[in-house]
Design brief:
The protein is of the alpha/beta class. The protein has 23 helices and 18 strands. A 7-stranded mixed beta sheet has the order 1-11-13-12-14-16-15, with helices on both faces. α2 packs antiparallel against α18, α21 packs antiparallel against α23 and α22 packs antiparallel against α23. It starts with 9 loop residues before the first helix and ends with a helix.
Length: about 775
Amino acid sequence: MNAATPRPLVAALCALLATAASAAAPTAASDTALLGFTADGATQERSLEQKFDAQLSAAEMRDWLKQLSSGPNQVGAPHDKANAEFMLGLFKQWGWDAHIETFDVLYPTPKEEAVELVAPMQFKAALDEPPVKGDSTSDLSGALPPYNVYGADGDVTAPLVYVNYGMPDDYKELARHGVDVKGKIVIVRYGNGWRGLKPELAYQHGAVGCLIYSDPRDDGYFEGDTYPQGGWRPPEGVQRGSVAKMQVYPGDPTTPGFGSTPDAKPLPIKDAKTILKIPVLPISYADATPLLKALGGQVAPAGWRGALPITYHIGAGPAKVHLMVKSDWTRKPVYDVIATLRGSDAPDQWIVRGNHHDGWVFGAWDPLAGMVAELGEAKALGALYKQGWKPKRTIVYASWDGEEPGLLGSTEWAETHAKELQQKAVLYLNSDTNARGFLGAGGSHSLQHLVNQAAADVNDPEKNVSVQERMRAHLLVEAADKNARPEIKALAKIAEKGGDVPIEALGSGSDYSAFLEHLGLASLDLGFGGEDDQAGVYHSRYDSFDHFDRFGDPGFKYEVALAQVAGRVVMRAADAEVVPMRFGDFSDTLDRYVGELHKQVDDTRKATEEQHKLLAMHAYELDSDPTRPVGPPERDSDVPNIDLKPLDDAAKQLKASAQAYETAYNARAAKGLQIPDAQLQQINDLMASMEQRLTDPDGLPGREWFKHMIYAPGMLTGYGVKTVPGVREALDGRRWTEADKYAAVTAKVLDGYRAQLDKLTAMLK
């Protein structure tokens, strides 16, 4: 999710922004050539966008947010359905053809929950979030207690073990301390990995239950004042969330690959691959403190210690915990609002825009801050439509339900309409959370220039620079941090040269997954953030209107900014003569990914050789103290010669084809994109299906639902992306034969993509 900018970097960011501001605020003349438009068309488009901007109202968005977050919005809540009906009425009022599409999905909700310390003393966890002074909604009824959806029911009592963040390296460290979790209940803290991996890894290591708590080191008083004095997580705050194995497939666990429609035949619950096998509950740090304090055993390693006023121990025991979860495993309705403005010239080409409306409780920031921006766009587009503007392509706006438990509404809709979407959808544009700060953009890299041009034409509401220039400054500052990820440093090197700011690749965690990674539709995800204090109330009762109004986006300026950027992407994609994609950006990005794979192979080989040398020199010895048994690591297998040549060749050939396409397009653009109608339709149809050429019908190994060969969530990263996933994850797992296989599979997919690009070039010539 969004993270605040590190404070030591603020001064550097201000300096970069001052340099950018010395140029000029964005104007329509900043880049007169719009991708996909003639010169006259670009002028008309920008004029239309000024009228669009004039329709946007921060006050109106604030009112909508207050209304939408005025009751609990979890799946099955009356207010969630009421919100869908409220938005349906707005869309119709604004001139859209709108309806609600309903799917009945498996959605377990808690009936009974308990967490009790039964030894060496007695303590019963509250498992509750009390109202806070000054928050007008925090005492409303109708909210479910804190829970993790799609964990198993269970009633277990066992010794407790602390496993830090509960990630793979933590279990290796635990083993080095001679502690295992078999037959135990583990307690892990949120962060440093997706929550669903924590109980799954615990189960794989033999644990019988899992507790996930929020440590104040990560999002509580260590970061700043707690709510209501500040924005950060109060002692009783609990982060809810799904623990379904969405990296296998999202959506209804019982209908993988097909919609939860009345004629569907759901799997038995026992056969659903994404439901966990052990009970799991989220708890607050107020409830976690007595449990952690009761642990004995070795003192936790330095990196495992949070900010609680205790000495962190590993266990196991003497703390013994009783964990009980009983759920209502019935099917419940989700309500997707679907609204359409029919296109004038190409009604069977769709530009799809979505944001979800369900929340874990009130959901003011996540997701409704993004939803009200989408509503602002819809009202403005409806007003233009009534005034006589008709988009060339059909525009479809969606408000999804059931995103929080597992991307339910969007996935079921996409699976139900899969064939039609693959025939008609040109792109899918997603948003989710939104707040004060910098624009974050991720998605298909053929859409990178479209995003940059839209961001260049929108003024940051607090700085005298374009949204694009503030993106660039933020990226450069992030890369300057000594702890910056290598991929951030690589992106910054590109951004500092001027031109486009690279967008990031998408993994999962929001509603674009089914469109991009299952259907192969070009997709984007947009949202502002980084200067808000919302992370501390993520997925809690305190993600409320009052909190967002104070700590998320005071003045709702960035709600308007999101509507401006997203609205431009939608309108330009809908109105362009030629679908506004640029394939050289994808080719350049692919070159970087292939280079990363080569480096991964080299680094793995070097690390393995070094390990073998150390083992041969007896660098690891068993500790003589039997109370601290420390053993050597297992000897890693040798790294054979991995055949990445098919990928090298495919990337090289694609670069040549992308350059040829750009030359042909530029020549046509210089002559005003004068293309006969029938030929133009063929070109745009091919453009719209280009992303589908990056999919393989057999999907990824062990998770066939994910068919995109360039972007996917990682099996051990959850939301985090793995690019060229078939190869990269095989290398991660030291599955060398599989790496060779998927290098060839991915190269074949890229060759198909290149062949279609060559057809486009021939048509333009």
